[in-house]
Amino acid sequence: MDATITRHGFDEVMVPNYAPSQIIPVRGSGSRVWDQSGKEYIDFAGGIAVNALGHCHTELVNALKAQGEQLWHLSNVWTNEPAIRLARQLCAATFAEQVYFANSGAEANEAAFKLARKYAKDHYSAEKTEIIAFNNAFHGRTLFTVSVGGQEKYCRGFEPLPGDITHLPFNDLASIEYQISDRTCAVVVEPIQGEAGILPAEPIFLEGLRALCDKHNALLIFDEIQTGMGRTGDLFAYQGTKVTPDILTSAKALGCGVPIGAMLTTKIIAESFSVATHGSTYGGNPLACAVASRALELINDPTLLAGVKQRHQTFMSGLQQLNSKIGLFSDIRGQGLLIGCELKPAWQGKARELLTFAQEQGLMILIAGPDVIRLAPSLIIPYPDINKGLQQLAQAMLALKMGY
C-alpha cells in the first residue's frame, strides 16, 4: 500500500466524471478483494461483469507474463500471432467468419454501427441509414453509441447527436413492426438490458426481430458486451436462443480485465470494411489478445458453463429466501450470473444506499439504475463465497429496512 495515495487524491487530480467509493481496493484473489486498510470483501460485482474468472487467475497471469516477455504492440501495419489465434477461436465458437478487434465495448459497438450503415449503402442505397434501438438501452459512451443507447441522462449536454436513430419500447414487437422499413439498416438489441435493470429479451421478441430484419434487409446486431463470455451460462447469450445475429459485439469479460473488444460478423458483411475504412491503433494488440485467447479457452468449457447455470440456481434460491424474510424486492430476475433484484415501491431510489450498506458488511455489489441491485460475480465463484456474500447482503438489506 502507498500511504501517499488516498481517496481524497482522486478528487484533486481526476476529472470528476466518476464518484467512486471511499475505499481503495489494492489486491484481489479469486472472488475476494482487500482494501488499503486490509479489510476483505466478497466480490459480487466482478468489475461490472468483467472479471469472469475472478481476480488474478493463475492461467491469465501466466498468459500475460509470457506474452509480456515477447511482444506487446506493433500497430496494425503488421499483424500478430495472438490476434489471429483469438479470431480463429471466436469464429470456431460462434456463427462468425471474421473478427474486428478494438479496445472496449463502446469501440466494438461503434464499429458495428458504422459497418451496418456502410454495408447498407454498399448493397442497397444511400437512404438506408435508420438504426432502430430500444428505450433504456446502453451501448457505450462515444457520441455515436450513446446516441444509439438513447438514455437522456447520458446524452444531455452533448447535442447535436448523430441522427436517424429510432428508439422503441423493449420487448414490444408490434412497435418494431410498425416502424421498421426498407430504410432501416440495422436493429441493435441487448439480449438482457443491463443498465436498464437486468431485463431479459423475450424469446418471441428476438425471433420477431430476426424475421423483420430478414424481411427488410436490415442487419440484426446483438450487443453482448455484458451477456457474452459465459455470463448467461452459454458462451454467448444468442446461443441459448433460436436466433443468430448478423453482427455480435463482445468486450468486458473477453479479456477478463485486460482491455479488449471484438466485433464478430460474416465475410459478406465484413467486406464493407475494406482497407482504411475503419481502424484502431491498439485494437488486436498481442498482449490483450494473448490473455483473451486463454480466457476464451477456459470459459468455453462445458463444465464451466454448466457451473454458471448451477450457481444461478444457488443465487436465486438464496435471494428468494432472503427476500421472503426481509421483503425488499419486488422481482428477482436474470440469467446465469447476471442477476437483478428490483426494490419494492417503498424502497425505490435506494439501490445505491443498499450498495453502501453492503460495502460496510464486506460485500461488493452493483446497481442498475436507482431501483435495482445487480450481481455479476465471477463465473467460478466458490459456493462458500456465495453463501457468505448472501449473508452479508441480508445484513445490508436489514440495515436499509431499519434505516441505519
Automatic annotation (TrEMBL):
May also have succinyldiaminopimelate aminotransferase activity, thus carrying out the corresponding step in lysine biosynthesis. It is an enzyme of class 2 (transferase). It comes from Amphritea balenae. PANTHER family: AMINOTRANSFERASE CLASS III (PTHR11986), SUCCINYLORNITHINE TRANSAMINASE (PTHR11986:SF113). GO terms for cellular component: cytoplasm. This is Acetylornithine aminotransferase. Pyridoxal 5'-phosphate binds at residues 105-106, 138, 223-226, 281. Belongs to the class-III pyridoxal-phosphate-dependent aminotransferase family. ArgD subfamily. N(2)-acetyl-L-ornithine binds at residues 141, 280. PROSITE patterns: AA_TRANSFER_CLASS_3 (PS00600). The modification N6-(pyridoxal phosphate)lysine is found at residue 252. SUPFAM superfamilies: PLP-dependent transferases. InterPro entries: Ac/SucOrn_transaminase_bac (IPR017652), AcOrn/SuccOrn_fam (IPR004636), Aminotrans_3 (IPR005814), Aminotrans_3_PPA_site (IPR049704), Class-III_PLP-dep_AT (IPR050103), PyrdxlP-dep_Trfase (IPR015424), PyrdxlP-dep_Trfase_major (IPR015421), PyrdxlP-dep_Trfase_small (IPR015422).
